[in-house]
User: Fold these one by one.
Assistant:
Number 1:
Amino acid sequence: MELRETLERRRMRRAFTPCEIDPDLVSGLFVESLRAPTAGNSRGISWVTLLGNHEVARYFEAATDEAWRQSSPRYEGLRHAGAIGICVANPETYRERYAEPDKARSGLGASIEAWPVPYWIGDAGAASLAALLLIEDAGLAACFLGAFRNDQALRAELDLRAHEVIYGAVLLGLPSDDDHRSASLTRPGPSRADRVRRIAPRG
């Protein structure tokens, strides 16, 4: 599948059909996603993978709560994902890299707070998009879920190190016909073309 076609086909699928996915396929997809840009070749982005019903259930038990699972219309479809990759960034890896001699003049090696734009967030987004495209190219469905609930419980479940930050989760599996388009897709706003602009000419 050509890249342009893959990008056009890609969309968030929030309902999956129960299935088992080859662990080697899952691992390979997330390994390949790490070909995405990494500032200064810092390599501070990693994935924690969860496979099968039991491990997917562990994710939802840690990352959500019973009230959300009872009330969310999407939970039933999401919980049938065949695997999940948790995208993890380590800001300290970037700080250490930019403290090295060839990057020290940037001043970014002084502290995490010195970064006006955290490169690890950009790198995590690039790796997540790469994963979504690779999953689409493999003939599977995927979606991205943000990490904004029960951060500490999920960190404990994944046994993360002190400096690691959860960026979000990529769920993958076979698509279900019960999936519904997000209401956000009908939200009015500028087109893609409107969001690409040229700098004003001088003089």
Number 2:
Amino acid sequence: MLNYASKHGVAKINIDTDLRLAMTSTIREFFIEHPEKFDPREYMGPGRTAVKEMVMHKMRDVLGTAGHADD
């Protein structure tokens, strides 16, 4: 559905909730696996990686916009 909307001129598609869920779930999993760790430098890295992967997925597989920066 989002791919269809993107190809038919919808200018804004909000994916913020998906990105926040990717970050939050990854951090929660980190704390479950490492309850003794609390340094943000340790748990934010995996969270940022999850967000980056979600953005790449959305651009490539959902919105069909990967590689269109020059368009």
